[in-house]
Amino acid sequence: MTLTMTNKINSITFEMVDTAITRVEHANHINLGTLKHTLSSNPEQAVEMFNSLVVTDSIDDKFKQIMNSYPQLLDNAHHLLETSILLS
Fold first, then answer.
1. What is the C-alpha to C-alpha distance for residues 20 and 85, in angstroms, rounded to an integer?
2. DSSP H or E segment with residue 41
3. How far apart are CA 40 and CA 37, in angstroms?
4. Which end of the chain is more exposed for a tag (fewer CB within 10 A), N or C?
5. Would you say the pTM of this structure is higher than 0.90?
6. Any residues with CB less than 8 A from the CB of 29 and at least 6 apart, and which?
7. Does residue 24 sit in helix, strand or coil?
């Protein structure tokens, strides 16, 4: 199980993150251009964030992680949660 998680973590790319966010946009009929721009300005950090969210089990814990580690993205927390679920 750990090996599978590790492989999944290592396989997440910024392109996958961007695609997942686009899917969240379409599903919610919204424009997340500002969020995409913020994440694309530091793609390594974005991938690291989603890697850590993907291995976190509960949605509550994922939300707490966003609040504590990425407070600048709190306005988009529910979109980040949706994206992390798609990447799981």
1. 9
2. none
3. 5
4. N
5. no
6. none
7. helix
